[in-house]
Amino acid sequence: MNIDINTKMITLLGTPLSQSFAARMQNKAYESAGLNMCYFYTEIDNEHLGEVVNSLRYMNFAGCAVTKPNKVKVLEYLDELDPLCEKMGSSNTVVKTPEGKLVGYNTDGVGFYTSLTEEGGIKVNECVFFCFGGGGAGRAMCSILAYHGARKIYITDAYEECAISLVGDINEKFAPIAEFVPLGDFSKLAACDVVLNASGVGMGSTIGQSLLPKEYIKPSQFYFDACYNPAKTQFLLDAEEKGCRILNGLGMSLYQGAAQIELWTGQKAPVEVMRQELLKIVAESKA
């Protein structure tokens, strides 16, 4: 990578970021597509997020990526929101326009839906969902499910106000299909076809942990975890042990990252190059 005065920068804003493969995948894509761009990490939480986001206006940035715990908070510092992003109430992608405006988008939903339907084979309009996590990732995932006609979505979170807010937004802005469930209440789980983990529990400092006791898992259910490092969280390991089909967030990361590149550059992303790089990273992490 040759960085010069014309290099357009992208930074990922969030914490923790030590488990992220995004920079390597994105930079490989830029190299393959002949783009003079560089993607790097900035570990930051809500406290100084506004200052960092505003600073992008005055430097050679094409925009930024946003992850936990900043996907909802970042909306406060943007000039405009894409209509779907506004309905979701969460942004993972910020584009700086030539005029210096910061515009929020959400590609998490697109990446999740593409992975769930193409790799997981899930027919969303035929399924009932249970989701752990009502923050940024959970918002995108549940909102896109509602947008595509999910039958029912139960949502729980350690921070009840997050889940309650998301339920209200889905019922008002998409369809009246969402219902809040207190964390630890698994009475609705047996009726669900697909169980989602968007809580972040199972990665970073919580590796080996799961919010779902094994005894509530049914072999007929499909389990998805937005995490991809580790490749199998305890949530997925427990489901696999019970005979469930499982899918991690690698495909979600791939497809949402490709959509980000297209927003930042206006060019089609080299998806297969990105896929091979992600698979290479995963293989190396297992070695």
UniProtKB/TrEMBL annotation:
List of catalytic residues: 71 (proton acceptor)
Protein's GO biological process: amino acid biosynthetic process; aromatic amino acid family biosynthetic process; chorismate biosynthetic process; shikimate metabolic process
Domain SDH C-terminal residues, every copy: 249-279
EC number(s) given by UniProt: 1.1.1.25
Entry's Gene Ontology molecular function annotations: shikimate 3-dehydrogenase (NADP+) activity
Domain Shikimate dehydrogenase substrate binding N-terminal per the UniProt entry, residue ranges: 12-94
Keywords: Amino-acid biosynthesis, Aromatic amino acid biosynthesis, NADP, Oxidoreductase
Parts forming coiled coils: none
Entry binding sites for NADP(+): 133-137, 226, 249
Catalysed reactions, semicolon-separated: shikimate + NADP(+) = 3-dehydroshikimate + NADPH + H(+)
Binding site for shikimate: 67, 92, 108, 228, 256
Family note: Belongs to the shikimate dehydrogenase family.
Subunit structure and binding partners: Homodimer.
Protein name: Shikimate dehydrogenase (NADP(+))
Protein's gene: aroE
